[in-house]
Design goal:
This protein is mainly alpha-helical. It is 82% helix and 2% strand. It is built from 9 helices and 2 strands, in the order H-E-E-H-H-H-H-H-H-H-H. Strands 1-2 form a two-stranded antiparallel sheet. Keywords: Membrane, Transmembrane, Transmembrane helix. InterPro entries: DUF6796. Pfam families: DUF6796 (PF20599).
Length: 239
């Protein structure tokens, strides 16, 4: 009787965690589109190199308006709500197999997305400040000072994501869940490194979308496999 109740609870938690993962897919996809609005500009791609050089920054942002960055900031910040839910979904799935790992992932994931909200807002404010001050040297220097004064947000956000990723990698690689061990490498950190190598714009959110989509699909596949195996065992016992 207790085992049947536990199965029902786990099935409910699995369904709820996958629902949250789907929210994460939507959130990361929308934020990825916002990243493209920020980085894929008519005069080229806004790279880290361009952000640090006045002439390059002026050239790449020429012809764009502040409305573009304001829209990217507002939509992107709101998409973080769904991204948070997505990371909570992965954490909730892990909770069925490792409560400690789940709690660490929950704290790391929520902390990362809260800080990522500031991260996204800051990066859209950079060209917004610059264009508002008519692309002058003073505007560029103000942008640099603003980022320097708030760089702590950017640094801590990366640490929080690292905590989430490392815990996720360890619990999956150790085989604590029904998912295959290779899924340990299907996380935002490893995927982002691969995308960044090929200079893919919006790499972090694209990586997040791939991760949440993969978990949404794989948790369905391997939960179905477990059910089939359980049914076979039960049939053999009856025989």
């Amino acid at each position: 009787m207790k085992q049947q109740q536990q199965k029902v609870i786990n099935n409910d938690r699995l369904g709820h965690s996958r629902y949250l993962m789907f929210c994460g897919i939507l959130g990361y996809t929308v934020c990825f589109i916002c990243d493209l609005m920020l980085e894929n500009l008519p005069n080229g791609i806004l790279t880290w190199e361009a952000l640090k050089d006045y002439e390059k920054f002026k050239q790449v942002t020429e012809g764009t308006t502040t409305k573009r960055y304001a829209l990217s900031a507002v939509i992107g910040v709101n998409s973080m709500i769904f991204i948070t839910l997505g990371l909570m979904g992965i954490s909730e799935y892990v909770h069925m197999y490792s409560k400690v790992a789940s709690e660490i992932m929950l704290v790391g994931g929520i902390s990362a997305t809260v800080l990522a909200t500031g991260f996204h807002f800051i990066f859209n404010l950079m060209p917004w400040f610059f264009l508002t001050l008519h692309a002058t040297k003073e505007g560029f220097e103000l942008k640099e000072k603003f980022v320097e004064d708030h760089k702590f947000i950017l640094q801590i956000e990366q640490i929080c994501y690292m905590i989430f990723n490392m815990t996720q990698t360890i619990v999956l690689f150790l085989g604590k869940t029904p998912l295959p061990r290779w899924t340990a490498f299907v996380n935002i950190g490893f995927i982002y490194l691969a995308l960044d190598y090929f200079n893919v714009p919006g790499g972090c959110n694209f990586a997040g979308a791939i991760m949440t989509t993969s978990f949404f699909i794989l948790t369905k596949i391997y939960s179905s496999n477990n059910k089939n195996n359980t049914n076979k065992k039960n049939n053999k016992k009856k025989e």
